[in-house]
Amino acid sequence: MWCRLTLPCPPELEESLVWKLTDLGLHRHAVQHAPETPDRKTLLVWLPKPEWPEPQRRELIASLQPLAEPFGLSLPDGHWDDVADEDWSLSWKQHWQADPVGAGLLILPAWLEVPPEHADRLVIKMDPGSAFGTGSHPTTRLCLEALEQSPPVASLVADLGCGSGVLGLAALGLGAEAVVAADTDSLAVRATTDNRGLNDRSEAELQVALGSVETLSELLAPRRADLLLCNILAPVIEALSPGFEGLLQPDGRALLSGLLVDQAPRLKQVLGGLGWMVTAEAEQGRWGLLEIRRRQA
Where in the sequence of the chain do the CATH 3.30.70.120 domains occur? Predict the structure, then answer.
């Protein structure tokens, strides 16, 4: 017997909730949404009932409550249902759909066929099982739309904090020469590797390794990237920003997301002090994206 938590999931909390559940070792979860209403999401969590009596379930909810506080929100009320013995993974798969992004991209769960109405879109196949983002989070959508608006044709792309690899795969689909990617989470490296295979991309096209700025620099050597993708939280971007110059060509650009709109002023100040200028900005709800380039002397 299984129990399933159904919890309304404000977009601001999606990344934090997924991170927390993964950190707790709870991988049987999904974020459900209809493509036409990306801001209305539901978090689903499956737990084996014998291992999760009611007191432990209350403790789990209590551990999620503080994640809403930085956003000035309260964790929405959820409810638990008993679920008959089943293959939870098949049940979980029922909650994923083909997801159009921007003008011409389609994030497609690997087990689904391309819907006829989206047959002309660039398909990026993903296995959401690793819980590392499939393009539904506003920060990821901002990056995907920015890539689409200025395709990285014939570019060498570096993806710092690659997660599922969705941004690198999109960059390749939009004409990039090659992508080098790194993440400090070994599960993300595995997810990117798996999704590379789903999209019939070679290791030469998308190389991924465990690590951070130094690892990317080693993968790029002796070259530097034309485009840097960095979709991680604002404090981490700030901490890593001194290393950006060593990753990019002098005329290269970076797309930075994962930040809240109200975090942008401080981040712009820090980047300005390091010789970067913001050349474009975008927002979805409370989330933002910055495009930066080196300030020319």
Answer: 2-93
Choose among 275, 207, 289: nearest CA to 244: 275
CATH classification number, 129-294, choose in 3.40.1620.10, 3.40.50.150, 3.40.190.10, 1.20.1250.20:
3.40.50.150
Radius of gyration of the chain (CA): 19
For residue range 89-115, what is the model confidence (pLDDT) as tens digits? Answer: 666 677 678 889 999 999 998 889 999
The answer for residues whose C-beta is within 8 angstroms of residue 164's C-beta and 6 or more apart is: 126, 128, 130, 132, 133, 134, 188, 191, 192, 195
Percentage of residues of the chain with pLDDT beyond 90? 56
Return the beta strands (E) in 95-224 as ranges: 99-101, 105-109, 122-126, 156-160, 178-183, 206-210
Which of 8, 5, 75, 72 is closest to 44 using CA atoms? 5
Classified by CATH at the fold level, domain 2-93 comes out as: Alpha-Beta Plaits (3.30.70)
Burial of 204 by CB count in 10 Å (0-12 exposed, 13-18 middle, 19+ buried)? exposed
Entry pTM: 0.79
- The residues pairing with 77 across neighbouring beta strands, listed in sequence order, are none
Residues ≥6 apart with Cβ < 8 Å to 7: 17, 42, 43, 44, 45, 75, 76, 78
DSSP three-state, residue 190: helix
How many CB atoms are closer than 10 A to CB 240? 17
CA angle 241, 234, 191 (to 5 degrees): 90
